């Protein structure tokens, strides 16, 4: 199964059943084209950084095609059904897609990919390098996503997680996500997914 802080979904899930590893055909291409119409703002540089529990200085920035070799090392270890490099390239080309990488001393140690939709952010993939877990990196990646939702005045953040991945569910619950349903046989091995939602409080301007 996926590692405790690893979670991912299919970016065409609104049209197709979850399929982590099977090839994407014409239906997937059509779904991608339909979704591309939901154009978001251009992705901005994430300049946030800070010191984490192990004393590491972590820098955050968007993912680029040149990062995929390092990203795939994490992806393949984190998931039994990893995305392919080609699937990452597809995801990065979707107009409403966003990504955040975490780096320590120039080494990629985690990432999150998500879509900015008209009323919500939908998280598709988040993972942290095996050697850098339990340092607060996954939590900070998720916090940056929720900050983006607030910046975009969106009302919620959505994700799906394997029903068996209890550690990940506990992390999301600790950040305020609530389980909102079960998606039967959502994954390519027919495991159910737990749908989770974080309701975003609007930013109230000070007077």
Polypeptide structure, described:
This protein has a single domain, classed as Aminopeptidase (3-Layer(aba) Sandwich). About 16% of the residues have low confidence. Strands 1, 2, 3, 4, 5, 6, 7, 8 and 9 form a nine-stranded mixed sheet that branches. Strand 5 and strand 6 form a beta hairpin. The chain is of the alpha+beta class and 207 residues long. It is 27% helix and 28% strand. It contains five helices and nine strands, in the order βαββααβββαβαββ. The longest helix is centred in the last third of the chain and has 15 residues.
**So what's the CATH class?**
Alpha Beta
The parts where pLDDT drops under 50 for at least 5 residues are 10-42
* String of helices and strands: EHEEHHEEEHEHEE
User: What would you give as the CATH superfamily?
Assistant: Gcn5-related N-acetyltransferase (GNAT)
| Rg calculated over all Cα atoms | 16 Å
Percentage beta strand: 25-35%
Helix content percent band? 25-40%
Query: What name is given to the CATH topology?
Result: Aminopeptidase
The CATH architecture category equals 3-Layer(aba) Sandwich
State the total count of DSSP E strands. 9
Tally of separate domains: 1
């Amino acid at each position: 199964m996926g590692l405790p802080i690893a979670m991912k979904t299919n970016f065409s899930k609104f049209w197709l059943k979850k399929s982590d590893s099977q090839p994407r055909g014409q239906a997937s291409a059509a779904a991608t084209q339909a979704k591309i119409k939901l154009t978001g703002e251009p992705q901005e540089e994430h300049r946030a950084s800070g010191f984490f529990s192990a004393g590491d200085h972590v820098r955050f920035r968007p993912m680029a095609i040149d990062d995929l070799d390092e990203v795939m090392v994490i992806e393949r270890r984190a998931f039994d059904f990893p995305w392919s490099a080609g699937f990452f390239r597809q995801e990065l080309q979707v107009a409403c897609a966003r990504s955040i990488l975490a780096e320590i001393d120039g080494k990629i140690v985690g990432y999150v990919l998500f879509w900015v939709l008209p009323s919500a952010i939908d998280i598709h993939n988040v993972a942290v390098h095996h050697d850098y877990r339990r340092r607060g990196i996954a939590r900070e990646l998720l916090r940056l996503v929720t900050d983006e939702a607030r910046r975009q005045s969106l009302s919620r953040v959505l994700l799906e997680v394997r029903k068996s991945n209890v550690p990940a569910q506990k992390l999301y619950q600790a950040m305020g996500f609530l389980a909102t349903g079960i998606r039967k046989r959502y994954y390519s091995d027919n495991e159910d997914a737990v749908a989770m939602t974080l309701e975003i409080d609007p930013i109230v301007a000070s007077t």
